[in-house]
Amino acid sequence: MNHKTALLVIDAQVGIIEGTNNDSVFAKDSLVHTIQALIEQARTRSIPVLFVQDEDVRDGLGEEAFAIHPSLSPLPNEPVVWKRATDSFHGTDLHEQLQELGVTHLVITGCKTEYCIDSACRKATTLGYDVTLVKDGHSTSDNAALRGEQIVAHHNTCLHGLSNLHPFIIVRPSEEDVLVPSHDSYR
Protein backbone atom coordinates (compact mmCIF):
# COMPACT_ATOMS: atom_id res chain seq x y z
CA MET A 1 0.00 0.00 0.00
CA ASN A 2 1.22 3.50 -0.77
CA HIS A 3 1.19 5.70 2.33
CA LYS A 4 1.58 9.42 2.75
CA THR A 5 2.76 10.36 6.21
CA ALA A 6 2.20 13.46 8.33
CA LEU A 7 3.66 14.29 11.73
CA LEU A 8 1.07 15.52 14.24
CA VAL A 9 2.34 17.47 17.27
CA ILE A 10 -0.47 17.75 19.82
CA ASP A 11 -0.57 20.25 22.68
CA ALA A 12 3.21 20.72 22.89
CA GLN A 13 2.51 23.97 24.70
CA VAL A 14 4.62 25.76 27.28
CA GLY A 15 1.98 25.53 30.02
CA ILE A 16 1.55 21.79 29.53
CA ILE A 17 5.18 20.73 29.06
CA GLU A 18 6.68 23.04 31.67
CA GLY A 19 3.61 22.90 33.90
CA THR A 20 2.88 25.06 36.88
CA ASN A 21 3.61 24.34 40.54
CA ASN A 22 6.02 21.46 39.77
CA ASP A 23 3.57 19.57 37.56
CA SER A 24 5.62 19.42 34.37
CA VAL A 25 5.21 16.38 32.18
CA PHE A 26 7.27 13.26 32.77
CA ALA A 27 10.77 13.46 31.19
CA LYS A 28 10.04 16.88 29.69
CA ASP A 29 13.56 17.54 28.38
CA SER A 30 13.73 14.18 26.65
CA LEU A 31 10.23 14.67 25.25
CA VAL A 32 11.11 18.06 23.74
CA HIS A 33 14.33 16.66 22.27
CA THR A 34 12.48 13.69 20.71
CA ILE A 35 9.73 15.82 19.19
CA GLN A 36 12.27 18.38 17.97
CA ALA A 37 14.29 15.63 16.21
CA LEU A 38 11.15 14.22 14.59
CA ILE A 39 10.09 17.66 13.35
CA GLU A 40 13.54 18.18 11.82
CA GLN A 41 13.45 14.73 10.15
CA ALA A 42 9.98 15.38 8.76
CA ARG A 43 10.93 18.78 7.40
CA THR A 44 14.07 17.36 5.78
CA ARG A 45 11.94 14.73 4.01
CA SER A 46 9.16 17.18 3.06
CA ILE A 47 6.71 15.33 5.31
CA PRO A 48 3.91 17.64 6.47
CA VAL A 49 4.07 18.74 10.11
CA LEU A 50 0.82 19.87 11.72
CA PHE A 51 0.42 21.32 15.20
CA VAL A 52 -2.59 21.24 17.51
CA GLN A 53 -3.08 23.72 20.35
CA ASP A 54 -5.55 23.36 23.20
CA GLU A 55 -7.43 26.63 23.69
CA ASP A 56 -8.29 25.68 27.28
CA VAL A 57 -4.65 26.30 28.18
CA ARG A 58 -5.02 29.94 27.14
CA ASP A 59 -8.26 30.26 29.08
CA GLY A 60 -6.77 28.69 32.21
CA LEU A 61 -3.13 29.77 32.18
CA GLY A 62 -2.83 32.66 29.73
CA GLU A 63 -1.16 33.46 26.41
CA GLU A 64 2.42 32.57 27.45
CA ALA A 65 1.33 29.09 28.55
CA PHE A 66 -0.80 28.70 25.40
CA ALA A 67 2.22 29.16 23.11
CA ILE A 68 3.77 26.15 21.42
CA HIS A 69 7.04 25.31 23.18
CA PRO A 70 9.75 27.57 21.67
CA SER A 71 11.96 24.56 20.84
CA LEU A 72 9.13 23.15 18.70
CA SER A 73 7.80 26.24 16.96
CA PRO A 74 5.99 25.73 13.66
CA LEU A 75 7.28 27.29 10.48
CA PRO A 76 5.00 29.92 8.91
CA ASN A 77 3.70 27.42 6.32
CA GLU A 78 2.88 24.68 8.87
CA PRO A 79 -0.76 24.44 9.94
CA VAL A 80 -1.74 25.10 13.54
CA VAL A 81 -5.17 23.78 14.53
CA TRP A 82 -6.86 25.18 17.63
CA LYS A 83 -9.15 22.84 19.50
CA ARG A 84 -11.55 23.02 22.44
CA ALA A 85 -12.14 19.29 22.95
CA THR A 86 -9.79 16.52 23.99
CA ASP A 87 -10.24 15.02 20.52
CA SER A 88 -8.06 16.94 18.04
CA PHE A 89 -10.53 16.15 15.25
CA HIS A 90 -13.73 17.27 17.01
CA GLY A 91 -14.88 20.71 15.90
CA THR A 92 -11.71 21.35 13.88
CA ASP A 93 -10.69 21.06 10.25
CA LEU A 94 -7.77 18.71 11.02
CA HIS A 95 -9.28 15.76 9.14
CA GLU A 96 -10.03 17.96 6.11
CA GLN A 97 -6.47 19.32 6.09
CA LEU A 98 -5.04 15.80 6.25
CA GLN A 99 -7.36 14.65 3.46
CA GLU A 100 -6.28 17.57 1.26
CA LEU A 101 -2.67 16.50 1.81
CA GLY A 102 -3.53 12.88 0.92
CA VAL A 103 -2.33 11.60 4.30
CA THR A 104 -3.04 7.97 5.22
CA HIS A 105 -0.45 7.53 8.00
CA LEU A 106 -0.21 9.75 11.09
CA VAL A 107 2.80 9.86 13.38
CA ILE A 108 1.52 11.22 16.69
CA THR A 109 3.50 13.03 19.40
CA GLY A 110 2.74 15.51 22.17
CA CYS A 111 0.78 15.87 25.41
CA LYS A 112 -1.12 14.72 27.48
CA THR A 113 -1.02 10.98 27.04
CA GLU A 114 -4.25 9.89 28.73
CA TYR A 115 -6.33 12.67 27.23
CA CYS A 116 -5.45 14.26 23.90
CA ILE A 117 -2.93 11.68 22.67
CA ASP A 118 -5.21 8.74 23.45
CA SER A 119 -8.22 10.49 21.87
CA ALA A 120 -6.33 11.44 18.70
CA CYS A 121 -4.92 7.93 18.21
CA ARG A 122 -8.28 6.25 18.59
CA LYS A 123 -10.21 8.79 16.50
CA ALA A 124 -7.62 8.73 13.72
CA THR A 125 -8.15 5.00 13.19
CA THR A 126 -11.92 5.42 12.90
CA LEU A 127 -11.28 8.11 10.28
CA GLY A 128 -9.16 5.68 8.25
CA TYR A 129 -5.59 6.58 9.26
CA ASP A 130 -2.92 4.13 10.25
CA VAL A 131 -1.25 5.59 13.34
CA THR A 132 2.28 5.38 14.67
CA LEU A 133 2.39 6.56 18.27
CA VAL A 134 5.95 7.50 19.13
CA LYS A 135 6.70 5.54 22.30
CA ASP A 136 8.99 8.22 23.75
CA GLY A 137 7.30 11.12 21.95
CA HIS A 138 4.33 11.69 24.26
CA SER A 139 4.02 12.45 27.94
CA THR A 140 1.85 13.61 30.78
CA SER A 141 2.09 14.73 34.38
CA ASP A 142 1.33 12.77 37.53
CA ASN A 143 -2.28 12.45 38.64
CA ALA A 144 -3.88 11.33 41.90
CA ALA A 145 -3.63 7.62 40.98
CA LEU A 146 -0.52 7.22 38.81
CA ARG A 147 2.82 8.84 38.02
CA GLY A 148 3.26 10.27 34.53
CA GLU A 149 5.76 7.55 33.71
CA GLN A 150 3.18 4.86 34.54
CA ILE A 151 0.49 6.54 32.45
CA VAL A 152 2.82 6.69 29.43
CA ALA A 153 3.82 3.02 29.84
CA HIS A 154 0.18 1.96 30.22
CA HIS A 155 -0.90 3.76 27.06
CA ASN A 156 2.06 2.46 25.08
CA THR A 157 0.90 -1.04 26.01
CA CYS A 158 -2.85 -0.66 25.54
CA LEU A 159 -2.74 1.37 22.31
CA HIS A 160 -0.20 -0.86 20.53
CA GLY A 161 -2.15 -2.99 18.06
CA LEU A 162 -5.50 -1.29 18.71
CA SER A 163 -7.55 -1.41 15.55
CA ASN A 164 -10.85 -0.09 14.32
CA LEU A 165 -11.78 -2.17 11.31
CA HIS A 166 -8.72 -1.93 9.05
CA PRO A 167 -6.50 0.96 10.29
CA PHE A 168 -4.60 0.40 13.51
CA ILE A 169 -2.06 1.87 15.94
CA ILE A 170 1.56 0.78 16.26
CA VAL A 171 3.73 2.09 19.09
CA ARG A 172 7.36 2.51 18.04
CA PRO A 173 10.39 4.16 19.69
CA SER A 174 11.85 7.26 18.06
CA GLU A 175 15.16 5.55 17.33
CA GLU A 176 13.29 3.59 14.64
CA ASP A 177 12.35 5.38 11.43
CA VAL A 178 8.81 6.09 12.62
CA LEU A 179 8.11 8.34 9.65
CA VAL A 180 8.05 5.23 7.46
CA PRO A 181 4.94 3.17 8.29
CA SER A 182 5.41 -0.49 9.17
CA HIS A 183 1.71 -1.35 9.31
CA ASP A 184 1.64 -3.33 6.06
CA SER A 185 4.12 -5.86 7.43
CA TYR A 186 1.45 -6.83 10.00
CA ARG A 187 -1.47 -7.11 7.58
TrEMBL record:
<dbReference type="InterPro" id="IPR050272">
    <property type="entry name" value="Isochorismatase-like_hydrls"/>
</dbReference>
<dbReference type="GO" id="GO:0016787">
    <property type="term" value="F:hydrolase activity"/>
</dbReference>
<dbReference type="InterPro" id="IPR000868">
    <property type="entry name" value="Isochorismatase-like_dom"/>
</dbReference>
<comment type="similarity">
    <text>Belongs to the isochorismatase family.</text>
</comment>
<protein>
    <submittedName>
        <fullName>Nicotinamidase-related amidase</fullName>
    </submittedName>
</protein>
<dbReference type="InterPro" id="IPR036380">
    <property type="entry name" value="Isochorismatase-like_sf"/>
</dbReference>
<feature type="domain" description="Isochorismatase-like">
    <location>
        <begin position="5"/>
        <end position="144"/>
    </location>
</feature>
<keyword id="KW-0378">Hydrolase</keyword>
<dbReference type="Pfam" id="PF00857">
    <property type="entry name" value="Isochorismatase"/>
</dbReference>
